[in-house]
Structure formats: structure tokens, C-alpha cells
Amino acid sequence: MPESVAVTIYHNPACGTSRTVLALIRNAGVEPTVIEYLKTPPDRATLERLIGRMGIRPRDLLRQKGTPYEEIGLAAEHWTDAQFIDQMLAHPILINRPIVITPWGVKLCRPSELVLDILPLPQHGPFAKEDGELLIDANGHRVSTPPQ
To answer: How many domains does the chain have?
Structure first.
């Protein structure tokens, strides 16, 4: 029963990708726990655990656009993983989103259809991104596979 599936999304309602991922989760009949991470940022242990479960490096979770990334100089090679995490904790806007946790995995869902890889539940009807790109057809099937 999908309603009982525990799903959490680290969400920014101002982000179109994040809104699309949230809508895809709901289109599968799941009401997730929504954490607006700019209002309620993760603590160090949670952020480290998320990064570990995604199997990525802290640098891979950094958002550049609309953040102090350039101002801080985060493109430089001298930063350690711990220092990247320090910067994300000090400036949560640096944390890329949306991050989704399901029983099938944890993933940074950019592009938005990546959420379908960790939420293998039937979609309840067609679904299109805000730009009109069709992701789920009228039969509830995924239209395309995201690039690897």
C-alpha cells in the first residue's frame, strides 16, 4: 500500500525541479515528509549520512547557481570534504536539491525523473514537468530514461 511507504524529500519550493519531484512522489500515491531544508537545514551528522548513502563526495552535492559558491571560491582544489560540509552547514543554499530518501535508496534527483529510480511504485496517470516535458504517459509508464 503506497500510502504507508516512508519517503522524505529535502525540498525548496522555489525550485522547479524540486516541485516536480514532489509532484512525482505524490503522483505515485505517496505523501512524503517534506523538509524545507533552507528553513530546517540538516545537521552535520544528517548531511554526512545523506552524502554517504548517495555514494557521492560532498563536492558533488554543491549547488553553484544562485549561491555564494563563486564568492567563497569553492571551485578551488584545496577544499577538503569536511570543509565543503562546513560551508553547506554555514550556507544551506549550497546544498543541491532535491534529495529524496525512499526504502529503495537515497538520491539527488536532478534531473527530476531520477526519483523514479528510487520510487518504483506505479504512477497514477500522466505527468509532465512544469515546462511541459512528458515524463509519465497516460498508462502510468515512464516516457524516457534519464541520461547516465
So the answer is: 1
